[in-house]
Amino acid sequence: MQxxxxxxxxxxxxxxxxxxxxxxxxxxxxxxxxxxAITILVMAVISKLxxxxxxxxxxxxSAKMQALGPKTEELKRKYGYDERIxxxxxxxLYKEEGVSMMGCSSCLPMLIQLTLIIxxxxxxxxxxxxxxxxxxxxxxxSKNFFWISDLLKSDPLTWFGLPLLNAISQLGIxxxxxxxxxxxxxxxxxxxxxxxxVMFYFLSVNWAAGxxxxxxxxxxxELLYRGIAALINRSKLHSATEGGK
Length: 245
Fold this sequence. Notes:
Blueprint: H1 6-26, H2 35-67, H3 69-79, H4 83-97, H5 104-125, H6 128-131, H7 135-139, H8 162-176, H9 180-184, H10 187-203, H11 209-243
Helix pairs in contact: 1-2, 1-5, 2-5, 2-11, 3-4, 5-11, 8-10, 8-11
């Protein structure tokens, strides 16, 4: 069935096929982790490499917002009695400092990730089309990943497997990602973003485990990147503070 994501799904599926056949022709397949699983993990790495420039931009913007902390606290003391005025004054401050409070740059990495997830969802509906010459040949391919015997089926641990890991990793991104600063300025936005991991937790229980493996690994890579970037920014801020003394 064709949809607006079909062209991207075809590209995604072709890349998976190329990676899988390269692995199958170059290395011995591990017993606990099939080439199919490794291909999905590699695709997660590639997708994160695509979004790194955008993540770097949002991380930089988040660092600027943190640096404006004293000024925003002063605005809270002066205008905290009226949330509408406070938001208006905060937006004016961010505009003066060249910081986007609700810019598309903060949303783009998430939108790209969701788009790639939908593309992979379409691929996993008919993976034989991209990774084998026939359905019989694809059926003979190993699709296991540790406790999961077939990544095209749902996680056998149901609520306690990849769906739970996905929800936790998503929550980690919400709590420590750059959009956290924006969520704190908008209570409705904060509630919405905090509920998203819970919503996906219940929705994803019956999804193909391969899709969740891709999502979880991508989330872990993003958390790792965010952590390293935060340490670098903290080191730069500390150096600047020491140099100003």
